Amino acid sequence: MALLEIENLVVEFATASGPFRAVDGVSLSVEQREVLAIVGESGSGKSVSMLAVMGLLPWTAKVTADRMVFAGTDLLKLSDAERRKMVGKDMAMIFQEPMASLNPCFTVGFQIEEVLRVHMGMDRTQRRARAIELLKQVGIPDPEQRLSSFPHQMSGGQCQRVMIAIAIACNPKLLIADEPTTALDVTIQKQILDLLMRLQAEHGMGLIMITHNMGVVAETADRVIVQYKGRKMEEADVLSLFERPKSNYTKALLSALPENATGDRLPTIADYVTEEAPAEGAVQ
Amino acid sequence: MTEKVLEARNIVRDYHVGGGIFGKSRTLRAVKGVGFSVEKGKTLAIVGESGCGKSTLARIITLIDAPTEGELFIEGKKVDIARERLTPEMRQKVQIIFQNPYGSLNPRQKIGDVLGEPLLINTNKSAAERRDLAMNMLLKVGLEAKHFNRYPHMFSGGQRQRIAIARALMLNPSLLVLDEPVSALDLSVQAQVLNLLADLQDEFKLTYVFISHDLSVVKYISDDVMVMYYGEAVEYGSRDAVFSNPQHDYTKTLFAATPRADVASIKARLAKKAA
């Protein structure tokens, strides 16, 4: 049985100019121990659909789906209290801006131990020991000292490691990483991706990798979903996606990569996606 | 003979940090003696991680900041803003485009005024002339006449970056410093903006200093590449030389860390995973 199964997910936001459909009928499933990448540009609804799964959308959002099941639990029927017990424990999420997602007022140790207190009910000594173990796992040197550091005393890459430590603190079944390396330098990006892949293999987690970077997809994913304007354009295993992209939009994305440039100019989405409204920013 | 638009010799920039109640002040050397030159119509890419001094260097080239030591020549003329005032003519020669198009446009200024302002400050053209020039430039960067009286929030990220490019070109500069111009943009929009930059370079014989951390973009757009690491230029050469035969360990690390999106590397990774 799949770890997460979503059928026909629709997310609408109430705006001043009427409802806006950010996700339009997306279906997906993630198996245990699988890495699924969701690729798309800004406005493609890739983050919103995962926030809907986590139940983190604001009240202006209306989430409907035919089916939304996580590890045998129907997410659509869950009460808020039940969902709070599950989110952060069985499924956890890492966000793009590591500096912004940690609370600047509390030490790193406090923030890791908070999860352990709320979800695992550990006592003080257990929590401390587990926090040190987690920091070790994510590769932060001197974990005993680092527990009393504040986020501003750490670099962006280290903050992201702490975020990952918090996310995996309760051994989640599913980890959702929303652009985990976009704000980081390439060498740090490599380290963080390696760390995520190592942890995913060690813990046997399902991992959903949300990204706009085709390189990150190529380096991490088993299976890929390409989204555009809230709709799923293509779903394929990673090799066939890069070898034989089926949808025009995927072809366009791949050819817009500067490393695939053949001539003097890069092909743009507008050269491929003509039957639909032009991509955001396209002015021609 | 090709003309050198920009030449820098042994540029050093120190920042004085701290000196609070308890802390002792110290000197941070952000750029440690960097030298390079760019010929007319060519693109020099400066690559490096955050904190390596590439943006400090951009500020020095753009004549926003004075170097602590070293000499800077623009079109063969020595410029030293620490000693003498910057003339409007010099200011027109170098323009800069920033990374974040959401932060670099005044939200209360209409696009027409954004484009007209450099002319208002640096030239004595009449309002009608300024308007015509701004309108021409707007069309040149791929926007439309109807955008002239709109405000920045009505544009997407890619369109804003076009506006920033148009604004930089209003004074007919010979040198354009691009500080991570496409890293905030989506892949498809990035392709459009890169194409626009290439078109404009051909048309106006522009010289670019392109600052980036994205090696695939650098490989696509540059003629020469300089790799910076902790304020030093650890590698400097033609694009083909740097990419085919990197000398410094840091450059090699950088290349190894860049994710590859080709079929062969995916196959290699999947094979490794299955094993």
Summarize the entry for a quick read.
The complex is a heterodimer of chains A (284) and B (275). Chain A has 284 residues and is α/β, with parallel strands linked by helices.
Question: What does this protein structure show overall?
Answer:
The complex is a heterodimer of chains A (284) and B (275). Chain A is an alpha/beta fold. Chain A has a single domain, classed as 3-Layer(aba) Sandwich (Rossmann fold), CATH 3.40.50.300. Chain A has helices spanning 46-54, 80-86, 98-101, 108-120, 124-137, 143-146, 156-168, 186-203, 214-220, 238-243, 248-255, 269-272; strands at 4-15, 18-30, 35-39, 61-64, 67-70, 73-74, 91-94, 174-178, 206-211, 223-228, 231-237. Chain A has a six-stranded mixed β-sheet with strand order 7-8-9-3-10-11, with helices on both faces. In chain A, strands 1, 2, 4, 5 and 6 form a five-stranded antiparallel β-sheet that branches. In chain A, strand 5 (67-70) and strand 6 (73-74) form a beta hairpin. The radius of gyration of chain A is 20 Å and the shape is globular. The N and C termini of chain A lie far apart (47 Å). Chain B has 275 residues and is of the alpha/beta class. Chain B has one domain: P-loop containing nucleotide triphosphate hydrolases (Rossmann fold), CATH 3.40.50.300. Chain B has helices at residues 54-61, 88-93, 111-122, 127-140, 157-169, 187-204, 215-221, 239-244, 249-257, 263-274; strands at residues 4-17, 26-39, 43-47, 69-74, 77-79, 94-97, 175-179, 207-212, 224-229, 232-238. Chain B has a six-stranded mixed β-sheet, with helices on both faces. The termini of chain B are far apart. At the A-B interface, helix 8, helix 9, helix 10 and helix 11 of A face helix 5, helix 6, helix 7, helix 9 and helix 10 of B. Chain A: Residues 4-254 form the ABC transporter domain. Chain A: InterPro entries: AAA+_ATPase (IPR003593), ABC_Ni/Peptide_Import (IPR050388), ABC_transporter-like_ATP-bd (IPR003439), ABC_transporter-like_CS (IPR017871), P-loop_NTPase (IPR027417). Chain A: It is found in: Cell inner membrane. Chain A: This is ABC transporter ATP-binding protein.
